[in-house]
Amino acid sequence: MASSAMAQGVGGITALMPSFSSSNRLQLGFSKHLPEWKRSSIAIRLDASFSQSSNSRKRASKLVTSAVVVKDETATSPATSKTGHELLLFEALREGLDEEMERDPRVCVVGEDVGHYGGSYKVTKGMAEKYGDLRVLDTPIAENSFTGMGVGAAMTGLRPVIEGMNMGFLLLAFNQISNNCGMLHYTSGGQFTIPVVIRGPGGVGRQLGAEHSQRLESYFQSVPGLQMVACSTPYNAKGLMKAAIRSENPVILFEHVLLYNLKEKIPDEEYVCCLEEAEMVRPGADVTILTYSRMRYHVMQAAKTLVNKGYDPEIIDIRSLKPFDLHTIGNSIKKTHRVLIVEECMRTGGIGASLRAAIIENFWDYLDAPIMCLSSQDVPTPYAGTLEDWTVVQPPQIVSAVEQICQ
Amino acid sequence: MAPSLSKLLRTAATTAKPPSWNGLRAACTRSISSESYSDKTTITVETNLPFTTHQCEPPSRIVETTPAELMKFYADMFTMRRMEIAADSLYKSKLIRGFCHLYDGQEAVCTGMEAALTRKDCIITAYRDHCLFYGRGGTLLEVFAELMGRKDGCSHGKGGSMHFYKKENGFYGGHGIVGAQVPLGCGLAFAQKYSKAEAVTFALYGDGAANQGQLFEALNMSALWNLPAVLVCENNHYGMGTAEWRAAKSPAYYKRGDYAPGLKVDGMDVFAVKQAAKFAKEHALKNGPIILEMDTYRYHGHSMSDPGSTYRTRDEISGVRQERDPIERVRKLVLAHNIATPAELKDIEKEAKKEVDDAIALAKECSLPDSSELFSHVYVKGFGTEAFGADRKELKGLLP
């Protein structure tokens, strides 16, 4: 299904510790060994050229289609390349899941084709052989009821990881996720905890069609009682998976169809990421760019152009979609005074819309320019490649948005 | 012997301290002692009607019971009946708001089931849950306090009529959306199989919910994996205002499991229910899911907002009350076997009424939840869920 054509590797991105975070207790002794963050060099190979847009234009006239991010051969590898092991994002997810299942016998996986088939994106490959059919449970195609079953099992103390083969299919389980998963802790007066993890790939892929390219972050964000995180690199994929499984709250882990084959070197030691923390991708001074999931890479690509043009963007991968890490975001805004949000959600009612509202409410006095939010268009994702590229935000749009904000 | 409720109330009135929680709970549990009735002598009872089966052999129609059990059935069912009637008048005097679904008429289902199960078994049901909660060991105070939205309710006033839960006694609620509890119930059964608990889950639903797709999805999975799930259809013949023959092409709900065996039971006969529940538990522990259809009836409408007479005649309601009332049936048995005199039964009834009234009086005194409770229990405090303001120093809201 989803091709791995997008990224061959974003090499050399080392683990980043935001210096303002105070929750280092979750990184098990790892932070001491980490060197300073080094900006890796990323070569961008473009299949189509893009024209220079004047400042008065709001969008580039031609879009970059099929932009691919590849590892630069001449890049110097960071100092930590001696320790750690390299793997792809779906393998990192599997490693996190595997470690947690070994650690706690109550953790189990429930989903379609997760067992014998090994998972449609190979996240659970080999796990049914290791843990047995009951712990890695192949379900029939019945999202509503197997999500409900997962919630019911969690009420007794099990910790199921419920996989939606594609996030869009979980719309069928919306009642179970919203009413039972999110609300049971409250309506029972605290008697039941629902420590489930609901995970699956979402987002716009490569011409998968409208129904298989949905972004459910916007639908679930107002369900009280749920936590939502989005992973974007192998490092944070493994860390967030582990943290989500260990959390007593129901967590939805949003993965992206096009990011499964990202390669990165991750530490050998055990580590867990903080669920509520954002990740500082690139410190800067001119503008704060907030993004998550796949758009992080479009932003990084645009950053290369922006740096050449003399801008110094600060890029934050917000990671935690509910609740927002207003601490990291706020400190960044206090420094740069300009915000650009780049997301893959729809314009209407998306994560960007909520984030914008939260920033205005908390940091109005620090803003020097209106917050810009680049989101996907409010259309069903078309099949045709060119149209599909038009629905999501592309790097040139990000570049011209930054130019506009920084006028 | 636990202090009597009236004594506790008097103490509460004179001292400034609120009565102790444990004292209240003890006083509100059944003080009608069936200890004076023998639990050694056996009485054999024949169920009123034979069992109808689908893909299985019926259990015996002969049920054994004891005088103690008979009197307990009587006392419990009468208390449940009083509880529901009292809730009716509380609703009409606007002390209970929102939706209130009453169970009177169906008491035999929950009482019979309890007699066949242990507290290790799980019960989950929809919104008609007051009596099931009581049967699982909930106190009258917890019931009325929750119905009136007070802090001492079983869900601390945050759930309401449709969200009664008692985790330690294996009662998993209390769910508002029709049918959604059945997959949850199969999840409970999955957890029981996973942890090798040797217990079963009874997932209750109504004739209206029987047409929900998720039910068949859950049944399919339970049968595939041999989960110890018993699906109990409390067929009171009306899904809110729609009669079963207008909603279901095949109202033989016990047959709708297809590959799963089914048993149709007279739900107004507490002994038939007990026998069927025992049979179902044994079956589920060995062979996976089974469906029980309880042919029962509710005297009230669907909820307090429904008069219950626009879609059925008053004659039908009074006819069922005269001929099939579950409490009357037990009463006749008690008198026929000379276990108690009418005067003793009257005493038990008076005691039950008093218990209910006392619990209501106590519940009316209970305080409403604190405003800080608005934000408690949204998330579980612990691993990474402290929520601060933008500076990580200032707390925006109290999240205990």
UniProtKB/TrEMBL annotation, chain A:
Key word Metal-binding present: yes
Domain of life from the UniProt record: Eukaryota
GO molecular function: metal ion binding; pyruvate dehydrogenase (acetyl-transferring) activity
The protein's required cofactors: thiamine diphosphate
InterPro entries tied to this protein: THDP-binding, Transketo_C/PFOR_II, Transketolase-like_Pyr-bd, Transketolase_C
Uppermost EC category: oxidoreductase
An annotated GO cellular component: chloroplast
Keyword rRNA-binding: no
Enzyme Commission number, as recorded: 1.2.4.1
NCBIfam families: PRK09212.1 (NF006667)
Protein name: pyruvate dehydrogenase (acetyl-transferring)
Species, as recorded: Picea sitchensis
Phylogenetic placement of the source organism: Eukaryota, Viridiplantae, Streptophyta, Embryophyta, Tracheophyta
From TrEMBL, chain B:
Naturally occurring in which organism (per UniProt): Picea sitchensis
Cofactor(s) named in the record: thiamine diphosphate
EC number per UniProt: 1.2.4.1
InterPro entries: DH_E1 (IPR001017), PDH_E1_Alpha_Subunit (IPR050642), Pyrv_DH_E1_asu_subgrp-y (IPR017597), THDP-binding (IPR029061)
Domain Dehydrogenase E1 component positions: 76-369
Record Pfam families: E1_dh
Annotated catalysed reactions: N(6)-[(R)-lipoyl]-L-lysyl-[protein] + pyruvate + H(+) = N(6)-[(R)-S(8)-acetyldihydrolipoyl]-L-lysyl-[protein] + CO2
SUPFAM superfamilies, sorted: Thiamin diphosphate-binding fold (THDP-binding)
The protein's role, per its UniProt record: The pyruvate dehydrogenase complex catalyzes the overall conversion of pyruvate to acetyl-CoA and CO(2). It contains multiple copies of three enzymatic components: pyruvate dehydrogenase (E1), dihydrolipoamide acetyltransferase (E2) and lipoamide dehydrogenase (E3).
Alphabetic keyword roster: Oxidoreductase, Pyruvate, Thiamine pyrophosphate
Alphabetical GO biological process terms: pyruvate decarboxylation to acetyl-CoA
Binding partners and assembly: Tetramer of 2 alpha and 2 beta subunits.
Class of this enzyme: oxidoreductase
Gene Ontology molecular function, alphabetical: pyruvate dehydrogenase (acetyl-transferring) activity
Name under which the protein is recorded: Pyruvate dehydrogenase E1 component subunit alpha
